[in-house]
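Protein modeling request. Please complete all fields; requests missing the sequence field cannot be processed.
Requester role: graduate student
Desired output: 3D structure, token encoding
Chains: 1
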Amino acid sequence: MTITEENPSNTSYHQPSKYFPIPTHIGKIVQDRVVLENHNQAEPEFSGQRTALNLHFPMTGNQTPTAVEEKEYLPRRTERILFVDDDEMLASLGEQLLTASGYQVVAMTDSIEALKLFSTNSERFDLIITDQTMPELTGKDMIQELKKIRADIPTILCTGFSNKIDEELAKQLGIDAFMMKPIDLPNLLQTIRRVLEKKKIFNKQTS
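Delivered output (207 residues):
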């Protein structure tokens, strides 16, 4: 299987291990869940403004692929997550990885449409995970609008770089967690659990 991504001129490369240097977004997410967990091979190919990551899945005889063995850091859960990222590939990967971890996920690439969906039924979701840099409505601004609708909705804001938001400002705005990209899967899952458990404790104390 091959995954491709356009490389912006200022792309920074991340070398997560001895295996290969690849751009931050596809490299970190794919390596964490697909390459390392399944002991497969990944070969990056760089060509101008595009990177292709070739994934090799071994087959033996007539064997069929088996389900990925659950790791300790991948608890099976059923909470409902709204995942927003204007990059279609990242939105799709986020949906697949979190669904595989037991969550019910709705992935969207348009922050305006995500806000509209939330406004129709704010109790449908238990958590919002959003990118910061998006056209029309940034992640920070979307969260502020979401909290006008439902003040107690847990939120996680992710960003690669932004001079408009940092961890301190995120806290002041009531954002529950602030994560810098590239985001590795174990850290994301741990952050999700921490945010959701904090909400459960708060609900018990105020009930």
